[in-house]
Design brief:
Layout (H helix, E strand, L loop, with lengths): L47 E4 L8 E5 L1 H13 L3 E5 L3 E3 L4 E3 L4 E11 L7 E6 L14 E8 L7 E6 L11 E8 L3 E5 L7 E8 L3 E5 L9 E4 L2 E3 L3 E5 L4 E5 L2 E3 L3 E5 L2 E5 L2 E5 L9 E3 L3 E5 L2 E5 L13 E3 L5 E5 L2 E3 L9 E2 L3 E5 L37 E5 L3 E4 L2 E6 L2 E11 L9 E6 L7 E8 L6 E9 L7 E13 L5 E14 L9 E6 L19 E7 L7 E12 L1
Parallel strand pairs: 1-3, 2-4, 3-6, 4-6, 5-7, 6-8, 7-9, 8-10, 9-11, 10-12, 11-13, 12-14, 12-15, 13-16, 14-17, 15-18, 16-19, 17-20, 18-21, 19-22, 20-23, 21-24, 22-25, 23-26, 24-27, 25-28, 26-29
Antiparallel strand pairs: 30-35, 31-32, 32-33, 33-34, 34-41, 35-40, 36-39, 36-41, 37-38, 37-40
């Protein structure tokens, strides 16, 4: 397919990546399928099979076998194409082997290409189409059954580099049953690389597992099936905006799973890593484009689960038009230092989260007005209360949704209210003050509501502050609720309810500092029978702050309320 007809999705700047030390693991050679045909027979023009030994290769890990292997490949190309067979040996290669993917395949039988003595900046195998090759009808060539072993992840060596410089030609082929370890880059998908399929690749102890480096007539629909990248610094780097598909792949114990751009889809994939240690240690860092994760699971493992992770976000989404989509993905310990799932200017959509056990999902999807269902109303910067909220108590006369009075005959002896306050604030110019005007023992509460659809989850976060210590504990409780009607003051009448979370604040915890309270229906209370999503009858989420133990004239301030639907 010609350069002029290649569709580019995005234009992206190149960037660099700082790397960290790696864990090394000797995984062993690939489980390759035995090559067909009998090694050692004479080459048949236009589709023969030859062995590297026929051209002088030894496979003793001592002598450089690269010239012999290259001579065998050149002979196949000259004869019109065929398959190079490599035996179950360790072949030392001190330079790059170059293959024309329109003519030649390489089939190994647990063969090892020992690249520990190769020069810096080289690759074990370079895949490059040539001018005299077939443009379209070359058939499906492949590389299979080989382990590529370098001198360590700090060496400047690439396992397989796909690079074609001839316009209108490509580096299309199939990679299968390969192990690549101890190199800087596992596979580099460069210029004019598209429509490649990769099966059962095992890449580990590398700086970068898979990298897309060129948008020059490249990047269309490169797919990976049952591959694993592990014990490395960075699993996947998409510099070029490639369209990459991963199906049933594993990304285990890499410092970072993704960095870059492009359209990146992961179906039924598993991600697992140790606890992030730095504030900017983002497992997924999307600059532009899209990450879509369907099913599968994402797990942050390690001891001391309750201590949480130190990273600010799980997903950094830098560009305004970039987006992350999670659909039916299982979560395990996604907690972050900010209690937010994603940061940056882009968007994130979450549907149908799964998982169990020590599942933890940050309360906030993204802490911005676009994702916060309360928006500016939760900042209390207006002259009147715009938040859907009300107070209620036993034995009181309702004056409005935000004011109650206790009367003895016609005389009022106590009042309670929710009102805008400017004396105690957290981040803006005002906050919401809730004053309980009657003494302890009288049930009294403040309530906040948000609409919700059946099947949705919900996260809620707010900050609170007390003027004085109350006479006893108070509670933050949250429910899925069914609103059946409203009274003359706009206060809802509630039908069915389902409890799914509670935080108790003891008097010893109360002081004049702002403190944060967070809820998420995916991190439900162990005493609840809720499933983490709103039942079919639910219309709202309701936060209930119970202050029955408060003394009279006790003030509670709340500010910066946010709600997020999952």
């Amino acid at each position: 397919m010609g350069e002029t007809t290649r569709r580019r999705f995005l234009d992206h700047a190149r960037y660099s990546l700082a790397v960290a030390p790696l864990l090394a693991l000797d995984f062993g050679p690939a489980q390759a399928q035995p090559a067909t045909g009998e090694p050692g027979h004479s080459m048949v023009a236009g589709g023969g099979r030859i062995t590297a030994e026929e051209f002088g290769a030894v496979g003793d890990a001592v002598r450089d076998d690269r010239p012999a292997i290259q001579a065998a490949i050149d002979a196949l190309e000259a004869a019109g194409g065929g398959i190079l067979l490599l035996a179950n040996k360790r072949y030392r290669i001190d330079g790059a082997i170059e293959v024309d993917p329109t003519r030649v395949s390489i089939s190994g039988a647990r063969s090892i290409l020992d690249c520990r003595h190769a020069p810096a900046g080289s690759a074990a195998i370079v895949v490059r189409s040539k001018q005299q090759g077939a443009q379209y009808e070359q058939g499906t060539q492949f590389i299979e059954g080989i382990m590529i072993e370098g001198g360590g992840a700090r060496t400047d060596l690439t396992g397989i580099s796909l690079q074609t410089s001839v316009p209108n030609f490509s580096s299309r082929l199939v990679l299968r049953n390969l192990v690549i370890k101890d190199v800087a880059v596992g596979v580099d998908f460069g210029a004019r690389t598209y429509l490649c399929q990769c099966y059962s690749l095992q890449i580990y102890s590398v700086r970068t597992g898979i990298v897309f480096t060129s948008n020059e007539d490249a990047g269309e629909n490169i797919s990976f099936y049952g591959c694993s990248i592990f014990n490395s610094d960075l699993a996947l780097e998409n510099r070029s905006g490639a369209y990459a598909n991963f199906i049933g792949c594993s990304f285990d114990y890499c410092r970072q799973w993704f960095l870059g751009t492009g359209l990146n889809q992961f179906s039924s994939c598993w991600f697992e890593k140790h606890r992030p240690e730095g504030a900017e240690d983002y497992p997924f860092d999307l600059i532009t484009g899209e990450i879509a994760i369907f099913g599968g699971g994402i797990q942050i493992s390690g001891i001391n689960f309750a201590e949480g992770n130190r990273n600010r976000y799980m997903f950094m989404i830098r560009d305004r038009l970039a987006r992350v989509i999670l659909n039916g993905t299982s979560a395990w310990n996604w907690r972050t230092a900010t209690d937010e799932l994603a940061g940056g200017a882009g968007s994130i959509t979450v549907r149908g989260l799964g998982g169990g056990g020590n599942k933890f999902v940050p309360v906030a999807l993204k802490d911005d007005r676009r994702h916060n269902v309360f928006g500016p109303a939760g900042e209390f910067e207006q002259s009147a209360i715009r938040l859907p909220c009300w107070i209620e108590a036993d034995g009181a006369t309702r004056v409005s949704a935000h004011e109650l009075a206790w009367r003895n005959g016609s005389a009022t002896y106590a009042k309670s209210s929710a009102s805008i306050a400017t004396d105690i604030v957290r981040s803006g110019k005002s906050s919401l003050r809730i004053r309980k005007g009657i003494g302890p023992g009288t049930p009294f509460s403040f309530n906040i509501a948000s609409p919700i659809a059946p099947g949705e989850g919900f996260g809620l976060r707010l900050w609170y502050r007390l003027g004085v210590k109350p006479g006893g504990p108070f509670w933050f409780q949250i429910f899925f609720s069914q609103f059946v009607s409203t009274d003359e003051f706009g206060v809802p009448r509630i039908g069915s309810e389902q409890f799914w979370g509670e935080i108790e604040v003891q008097p010893k915890d109360a002081n004049t500092e702002w403190r944060r309270i967070s809820f998420n229906s995916h991190n439900i209370d162990e005493t609840s029978d809720a499933l983490g999503i709103a039942p079919a009858w639910a219309t709202h989420v309701r936060l209930h702050i119970g202050m029955a133990s408060f003394a009279g004239e006790t003030d509670l301030w709340i500010d910066d309320i946010g709600g997020w639907r999952f």
